[in-house]
Amino acid sequence: MHGIEGDIRPHRQPHQPGAGHRSTRYRVTGMDCGSCAAKIETALRRVPGVDDVRVSVPGGTVTVVHGAGLGSDAVIRPLAALGYGAEPADPAADRPAPACGGGCCGSAPAHSHSHPDPAVQAAGESPWWRGRKVRLAMVSGATLALAIAAGLLVPGAARWAFLLALVVGLVPVARRALAAARAGTPFSIETLMTVAALGALAIGAVEEAATVLFLFLVGELLEGVAAGRARAGIRGLTALVPDTALLERDGAPPHPVPAAGLTVGAVILVRPGDRLAADGVILSGDSALDEAPVTGESLPRRKGAGEAVFAGTINGDGVLRVRVTAAARDNTIARIVRLVEEAQESKAPTERLIDRFARLYTPGVVAVAALVMVVPPLVAGGAWAEWVYRGLAVLLIGCPCALVISTPAAIAAGLSNGARRGLLLKGGAVLEALGRVTTVAFDKTGTLTEGKPRVTDLVAIQGGEAALLGRAAALEAGSSHPLAGAVLAAAAERGLAVPAADGVAALAGAGVRGRVEGRAVALLSPQAAASALTAEQAERVAAFARDGKTVSVLLVDDRVAGLIALRDEPRADARSGIEALSRAGIRSVMLTGDNGRTADSVARALAVEPHAELLPQDKLRLVRDLQARGERVAKVGDGINDAPALAAADVGIAMGGGTDVALDTADAAILHGRVGDVAAMVALSRRTMANIRQNITLALGLKAVFLVTTVFGVTGLWPAILADTGATVLVTANALRLLSIRP
User: Fold this and answer.
1) What is the pLDDT of residues 619-643, one digit of tens each?
2) What is the pTM of this model?
3) Would you name the residues annotated as active-site residues?
């Protein structure tokens, strides 16, 4: 494992498709375990023109990077021969693959593949009880029951009845074994089952062979049900988007239309209690919106005109008119589903290690089974029939299904859990790496802080605070400057009636002046108002500056009326989020381009180590310095200004909303910009890795126990197959626990 531990960023994997290559994603039915994935990957890599194959068992998908001349039939045919159904995930598939590493390795950006509306995908899947595996298990069970009944009623016909039951179960399994061998997988579970059944028949254990085949088919069915439940975890998000929307057009009353047909620029009406059918911007109206489906935020957020809203969120108490900003296939929930499904195709280092181990493990088990069959009779004179029987049981125990699925099942559940709470991670490698992080480097502006100034102090010298703030707001009413916005927001929060201002004029580099209620009023910088400030007032301004605050001085008739201090304040949960990281044994540092005084002020409030006045290359250097000291670094920023440091860090985490470009650029993204979610990501990673360790122990432990009991003759063929299928179901069920754990 140490040899691959450092390869933790899926978009840095070495494979690069050549020019003219395309990437096509397929939905595959009947693929329920790691052995299925191995057979499919091996078979497709042998198809001429296929450059790369990525398989996601939890997602039920296969992504093929191939030459432009390769059609879908060339991919679907070998899958059909192996017994799997397949169809392109998008009818308009076979789009050009991107030239960058992200489009061809484990964690492609959301735009790099062709996808349909995920709601359509989920709707097209039939229930498990209508599948081929159910029919096959029922027919096998019925013939086995008839054989048992025939044995009781007509003892002489029992052997032939059990032989018929054996053939019913064996023929489809043997056909799949032959197809897998032709496709390059000679040691498949179907091959092991076929050899075991034929061996049991040869030594006269026909009843047990028929029973084992029936149990195998039932085990496959249970695996399919468990895998289906795992897939439903993330795809359930698609059901949050309503099927219809109320469209406004040409002055006509709003009328229902399919949500999938909404185009960018359309205007929809959202009534109280309705779910939003699309991402958009509020044109009119004001309401509290429940954004938990998208961001995981439990409390509703009040939004009004000009603010962004997301598909799947629930409108509260107001009527909203919303202009659509993204088509159905590109809305926030669709992008989240795509990102998680693509992330499931990215193998974590542990998963790659298990895959390599399984490729050696299965032939090794076959060799052990052969030795069990041959050595005791030859060396110790044991009975051939008895030791062949035990060797056949060892053969069944050796199937690596439970071991191979132990890691991807847990990782898929962890990724789904995070996505449902606004924590997006691009692949198992990222999920695994987060648990090993020792230092988190935060950007300041917009990450640890809100990213916009707020009024923190009002010092009224003439009149009260309301008069001071009202006059300042009157001068700033027409300005788009961030400081002006902070003053206006503070006045609005206090419910002040802002008076009208006349003759307002900007003073270059100094401030703004005008007349308010017949008096000359100016809002100036301390430097511009220096001549009007007393020594005491100047010291007050200097104290604010030492705290990293920006000060504006209000003059009324050329006399100081008050001071207004503003600062970009820390996020509400920044302190608690950093404390949560500290409890997890992780150090926090702050990297910012802001001035030292402001950085020190924020750092003191949050108890982090500050590094200020940094250029992008300085942030990159500091990240590399930390790594050189043996630290595993997660960099948290906006995904754009901090791009070099994000790329150099072991894990890059972007803070941003659901439509932020950061979703496509970083290793992970926190949708609702909560600092505490960094610690939640780490906790989710550690829980997932603990779950993987449990699964591996469970899978190997059961096999070890049954291997010993089988060699010593305590257990036989049917307990052996139960050990295999039972372990597969158990590790999948254990992984599913991650879906309900709140990080």
Assistant:
1) 889 999 999 999 999 999 875 557 6
2) 0.67
3) 443
